[in-house]
């Protein structure tokens, strides 16, 4: 997961930069600031001019999960090293939708929806918080620029769009894996989708990026930025790619559509409980990509490493006290006798106000939001995965007369999800 050692004569990269890196391009001639990132870093240090490190995000949803946070963590590392993070809110490109990883044309979002999502993204990244509690440093002067690409993309006229289109070819676009697969299978590709990598690349021109961060699935788009910078007479950026984080199942990528995510906005108990259960095979990936802990100094016992990983990620997001409390509460809720520890544990609440009583158990789970649907709730109960204050719910049709029979009790789904039921 870490880049190979540089060839003889090349300037080595600092450990904080190499950690978790999957790809860096170009990685060419030693001493050439256009071909070797170590040389450009040295040039920035000697000149006192920080690098401009670009990360573009399209706010097509409202929640950021740990899979997204890899890139923000690396961007923060550049900030802490004295460089300028350029965070581009793709409020214009989000209305097109990145075709990467998609088998069909994405639904285009409204301007209002994109702006609402952008506001929640910035809040989750730490806008208004002290740097030590935020994922990004919003307060130290010179460390962050937040730009919206509608600033330059909304005003492009037709000759400028034609110029951009002339920089690439249909063959280059069809070399992109997603387009190639869709073309080969006869799945339609809308012409506006070819514009997406060009517009994202044009962002690099507008902010004069020295380096762009992206996932390994973004190499085509990042390389397009290099092509456009050359076309417009700029020094081309470097591309640094990070791995795609496995989800909680340890197999597929972390994705909300696969229901295998940990959201940045999740409460400490939910976050810790989910992380404590990830498969052993991905624990070291999580440690490498989501923490700064030294893997060589950690215990070899898989269960101890798993707990340390869960505790450290929760601590980084919620603070040491909240993380420790979440660890203790998870142990008492999962490992205790029926109901033991539930009264004292700090458990996120779920209101019974919207529940129509008398209520059957399967309806209750969906009504308070612990299951996405009544059918899913039935399956979970029948599979033995639901408890109420430590007692297993065995009958999906068990009926509860009113909120007084439930208020204050902890509803548990598996070993990861807990909600304290409250009347109001």
Word description of this protein:
With 424 residues, the protein is α/β, with parallel strands linked by helices. It has 16 helices and 13 strands. The protein has a 6-stranded mixed sheet with strand order 1-6-5-2-3-4, sandwiched between helices. A 5-stranded mixed sheet has the order 7-13-12-9-10, covered by helices on one side. A two-stranded antiparallel sheet has the order 8-11. The termini are far apart.
Short description:
The protein is built from 16 helices and 13 strands.
Main attributes?
single chain; alpha/beta; 6-stranded mixed beta sheet; 5-stranded mixed beta sheet; 12% strand; globular
The number of distinct helices, counting runs of at least 4 residues, comes to 16
Rg, nearest Å:
24 Å
The averaged pLDDT comes out at: 87
Strand order of the largest sheet: 1-6-5-2-3-4
Structural class from helices and strands? alpha/beta
| Beginning-to-end CA distance, first to last residue | 48 Å
Beta-strand segment tally = 13
* Main pleated sheet: 6 strands, mixed
Give the overall form.
Answer: globular
